Amino acid sequence: SERITVPGFASLKGSGQKITMVTAYDYPFAQLVDAAGVEAVLVGDSMSMVVQGHDNTLPVTLDEMIYHAEMVGRAVNHALVIVDMPFPSYHLGKHKAIENAGRILKETRCQAVKLEGGADQADTIHALVSAGIPVMAHCGLRPQSVHQLGGYRVQRDAAALLHDSRAATEAGAFSLVLECIPTEIARQITEKISIPTIGIGAGPGCDGQVLVLHDVLGLTSGRVPKFVKEYADLRTTITDAVRNYRDDVRGGEFPAKEHGFE
Ligand code: KIV
Ligand code: NA
């Protein structure tokens, strides 16, 4: 099927078809999620936690995001591929934001960037969009601000959330992630703005949903957030497979005759 473009993605709002987005950080997983038929693949800075093992999203660098976005860009032929701008790559002025987002589009085969912010990032969103760089905004819980927020908490200020969502829309964002906000607030924002809302912990009233792939697959160690649904238990599958391999090696059952050369 045809490649999903930024305007094609945006036009799904109001089409009656819900949008599915999931993260991927490397070639094999990106191939699999693209084959499953999602509309968008996000190279999220959640990579800092689920791939690199840090306890928040602050450490991952722009070079590391680009390195992984290249792998995902090579794998995906159908879905729209969006790359998170890491902290603080869009907080250093408009010129630097364009330079950094420009590197993502030049050096990977990805089509858009995402950044955390609403009204406070309107000027930056506008500058990027003016440079021809499609921007997905991200409001509600903003994990890059974890120290300021004092933890990962549900964001409940309805007026501020609507103000941020409108500001991102007016600045030219083509879509908006809403993270960890009450279901009813997300439903109202979705009704009031013209761009698709993609929820995570924001209830069913959004135009689409996003989850971290490692959470979907049951690969995440420790506790997963309340808003996650695990669709597989790959930790068990993988550990069992490797344990069976180890047992076969120890027991002399692997390699067998058919695995060798005469
Ligand atoms: O980094 C990420 O994976 C994200 C999604 C959870 C929206 O920003
Ligand atoms: Na992110």
UniProtKB/TrEMBL annotation:
It is an enzyme of class 2 (transferase). It catalyses: (6R)-5,10-methylene-5,6,7,8-tetrahydrofolate + 3-methyl-2-oxobutanoate + H2O = 2-dehydropantoate + (6S)-5,6,7,8-tetrahydrofolate. One of its GO terms (molecular function) is 3-methyl-2-oxobutanoate hydroxymethyltransferase activity. InterPro entries: Pantoate_hydroxy_MeTrfase, Pyrv/PenolPyrv_kinase-like_dom, Pyrv_kinase-like_dom_sf. Its main location: cytoplasm. Pathway: Cofactor biosynthesis; (R)-pantothenate biosynthesis; (R)-pantoate from 3-methyl-2-oxobutanoate: step 1/2. Its EC number is 2.1.2.11. Its cofactor is Mg(2+). The gene is panB. Belongs to the PanB family. It comes from the Bacteria. It comes from Bythopirellula polymerisocia. Coiled coil: none annotated. The keyword Lipid metabolism does not apply. Mg(2+) binds at D45, D84, E116. Gene3D superfamilies: Phosphoenolpyruvate-binding domains. The active site is at E179. It is found in: Cytoplasm. This is 3-methyl-2-oxobutanoate hydroxymethyltransferase. Catalyzes the reversible reaction in which hydroxymethyl group from 5,10-methylenetetrahydrofolate is transferred onto alpha-ketoisovalerate to form ketopantoate. 3-methyl-2-oxobutanoate binds at D45, S46, D84, K114. GO terms for cellular component: cytoplasm. NCBIfam families: panB, PRK00311.1. GO terms for biological process: methylation; pantothenate biosynthetic process. It holds the Pfam family Pantoate_transf. The keyword Magnesium applies. Binds 1 Mg(2+) ion per subunit.
